[in-house]
Amino acid sequence: DGERGRAAEIAMKVLVKLGEAYNAERMIRVRSAHLVSCVYNVVYDAGIDIGERMVKLKARFKVPTTLCTGSVPLEEPGMFHVPKDWVEKQFRLGKLYELMGAIPIWSCIPYWHVNVPRFGENIAWGESNCVSYVNSVIGARTNRYSSYVELCAAITGRVPEMGLHVSENRKGQVLVKLKDLELKRFTERDYGLLGYALGLAVVNEIPVITGIPKCVTKNQLRVMGAAAASSGAIALYHVVGVTPEAHTLERAFHNDKPEEKIEIGKRELKEAYDELCTATEENVDLVALGCPHYSIEQIAKVASLLEGKKVHPNTELWIFTDVISAYLAKRMGYYDIIKVAGGKVMIGSCAMNGPTFVCGFKTVVTDSAKTAHYVPMQAKAGAFYTDLKECIEIAIRGKLR
């Protein structure tokens, strides 16, 4: 009713309409937000208009709110061929959100540091890999919130009780059995393929996966989830014996029977690989690493593989990370090793969020299934998907083979 200001009134009206559309019975409090409304290539000029209006109405975030990966690097954007008008508009948009109280981490892995939800907490997050990870691996609760809905949630600290905020809606729907796969030998590349195959098969339902070993790492899970959220729209998955809502098969399905059973094996992984590898030219223009954003551990691996070597003069090597990991990389010497070798660290952004289509790239190599999925659309180029070690080898020789 405007008692807490016009901005909160507008935000609550939007959320009420959303709740009515989904027959939600009440509003619930959220403990944090993560925004994609701050990303220029998501909202464009209309997003700046909305941000300016909210600032004029004195909008302030009620809960801790982090900003997702921007459309331009925070440092030396010209080094990455970003047009000046994109730089100006993204910085302008980002400043508006900072004035509302956002934490400018500019990252798609806020769950790695700064904005780490707890099991069972209700939150309002955007960005598909973020949603997948916090729902599945941590067991927090969020829907795949779109631009402005998460903004309204950040301003009010509330969302309608609907979708994945409701316990009943979090039960598994599809039983996924992994067939004839040497899972204990799986690398991050393999988990990316598995996630991509999973998204193609399940699309937007909740899969319950059996067979993944308990030694699977957090990074392997986030790689799998990011890929599944790209080829499909999976916002929550359960891994029996690994993720917190799937200690047993029965618990994952809430003691109910699966609606469907499927198998994923070598054939499905090969189909996923073939779909991700669209490159037709041998010369490599760009090697893109860090989607989701690289952690400090991953940056350290890049530095160790590059030390004493040189990136081919006709090939660009970009590593994407957030402000905190970049700060640590500089303090720990990794940043300088990468720079001396000819690599570039893109801070607070990534190639698929920026106007990479202006670069004229024809072949992009990546260790990210998500990046490989978006390269033909965002960069207007062919993609080649492989592991980190081969990515670095390709960057050095400048050719696929």
Explain this structure:
It contains 14 helices and 14 strands. It has helices spanning 6-21, 40-56, 84-99, 128-138, 149-156, 188-202, 218-231, 249-252, 266-276, 296-306, 323-331, 334-341, 369-379, 388-397, and strands at residues 27-29, 33-35, 65-67, 124-125, 158-160, 174-178, 207-210, 238-239, 260-264, 286-294, 316-321, 344-347, 363-366, 382-385. The strands form four sheets. A five-stranded parallel sheet has the order 12-11-10-13-14, with helices on both faces. Strands 8-7-6-9 form a four-stranded parallel sheet. A three-stranded parallel sheet has the order 3-2-4. Helix 10 (296-306) links the parallel strand 10 and strand 11 (316-321). Helix 6 crosses helix 9 and helix 10 (296-306) packs across helix 12 (334-341). It is globular. It starts with 5 loop residues before the first helix and ends with a helix.
Layout: helices, strands, pairs:
Elements: H1 6-21, E1 27-29, E2 33-35, H2 40-56, E3 65-67, H3 84-99, E4 124-125, H4 128-138, H5 149-156, E5 158-160, E6 174-178, H6 188-202, E7 207-210, H7 218-231, E8 238-239, H8 249-252, E9 260-264, H9 266-276, E10 286-294, H10 296-306, E11 316-321, H11 323-331, H12 334-341, E12 344-347, E13 363-366, H13 369-379, E14 382-385, H14 388-397
Parallel strand pairs: 2-3, 2-4, 6-7, 6-9, 7-8, 10-11, 10-13, 11-12, 13-14
Antiparallel strand pairs: 1-5
